[in-house]
Structure formats: C-alpha cells, structure tokens
From TrEMBL:
It comes from marine metagenome. GO terms for molecular function: nucleotide binding. SUPFAM superfamilies: NAD(P)-binding Rossmann-fold domains. Pfam families: GFO_IDH_MocA. This is Gfo/Idh/MocA-like oxidoreductase N-terminal domain-containing protein. Residues 36-161 form the Gfo/Idh/MocA-like oxidoreductase N-terminal domain. InterPro entries: Gfo/Idh/MocA-like_OxRdtase_N, Gfo/Idh/MocA_oxidrdct_glycsds, NAD(P)-bd_dom_sf, TAT_signal. PROSITE patterns: TAT.
Length: 199
C-alpha cells in the first residue's frame, strides 16, 4: 500500500474530534516529500501495533524510538531491524526530548502513559513535528487546551487516536447508542479490561 504524506495526514485526521479546531489551512499547504520520517514516543501495547503497521508502509520510515523501559525499547528496535535489516538507521532513545531534537523526524506517534501525553505532545509541536497521539489527549481540560494552543501556534497537523469511534464497522458507536437510548434495558453491571500497568 502506497501512502503519500498528504494521504497519511488526511486519514489520520479523519477521526479527530478536535481536528477542525486545531488544523489551520496553511498546514495542508505544506509541500509533500518522498517519505515521512517517523519517531515513536513510548512503545506500549497500542504503539507497538502502530509501529508494526508503519513498518509495513513504503512511504514512511521509522527513524527513532524513544522508550524509558529498556525491554520495550529493545523489542521495538528488534521489530525495526526485522523489517529494515541490520542497517536500519533507526535510533533508540531513553529520553524522548533527544528524539524531538532530531531535525530529520517529520512526525511522531505518542503512546506514552496518559499523564505524559500533554507534555510530550506540546514539546513535539514546539519541535515542529506533526503528531498522532493516543487517546485520551490529556487527563485535564487545561492540559488539552494548552496542547491545542501548541498545535495551532506551530501550525502542525495533530491527530488523537480514536479507533473505537472509527473502526470495526461502527459497532462501538452503535452499542453506545443502544445503551444511551435504553434499547438494552437498565445497565446493572459493566466490566472493562485494561492493559498492563503504565510504566
């Protein structure tokens, strides 16, 4: 599958609920280049799935992985090497600020624990990197507003991951509608599953 920079950014923005409030028209006017150089900030369960996907794309290249947990960082670098070979050109970082300082990186995927989203997203925006951030955007309204300001101030493309709203044929959305409209009766019990504890 060939994906242009514009297609990548457009499809990434499709499901963003804040996109109309963040993206300026001049962000769309950026001249597309050959490949998107992509960095990952945090590589937990969701981010590893994104990493695996982007490693299979011909029009982007993973050039940096920042992760504080050595086992996750090493596993991600093994994934990169498995796809690109030993001369992969991808750098591993234990501090995401070093990744953001790399001028060759065009965009970042943020998959850190939730309480780190705002700081890394704002710093990425200030480094002029386009951003795909896992949900939730932040854990406070104030941090969300500051993140939006940073995206606007730096004229970057910013997307918040919201897979359950856009994937799986709309089943999640329809299920929520059924609950809200009383179609399944009174809800007495809800069980949820979550991933491993955040690092």
């Amino acid at each position: 599958m060939n994906v242009t920079r514009r297609q990548f950014l457009s499809s990434a923005l499709y499901s963003a609920t804040i996109a109309p409030n963040v993206i300026t028209s001049s962000a769309w006017a950026a001249k597309p280049s050959g490949k998107i150089n992509l960095g990952f900030i945090g590589v937990g369960i969701m981010s590893r799935g994104h990493l695996n996907f982007f490693l299979g794309q011909e029009d982007c290249r993973v050039v940096g992985v920042a992760e504080v947990a050595k086992v996750r960082r090493d596993h991600s670098m093994d994934m990169v090497q498995g796809r690109y070979g030993s001369n992969h050109g991808c750098k591993a970082y234990d501090d995401f600020r070093e990744l953001l300082a790399d001028k060759s990186i065009d965009a970042v995927v943020i998959g850190t624990p939730d309480h780190w989203h705002a700081m890394s997203a704002i710093m990425a925006a200030d480094a002029k990197k386009d951003v795909y951030c896992e949900k939730p955007l932040t854990v406070t309204v104030r941090a969300a507003l500051e993140t939006v300001k940073a995206a606007r101030r730096n004229n970057i493309v910013f997307q918040v991951g919201s897979q359950q709203r856009t994937e799986f044929g709309g089943h999640f959305r329809r299920a929520v509608e059924c609950v809200r409209n009383g179609r399944i009766g009174k809800v007495n019990k809800v069980k949820i599953g979550v991933g491993a504890p955040a690092v």
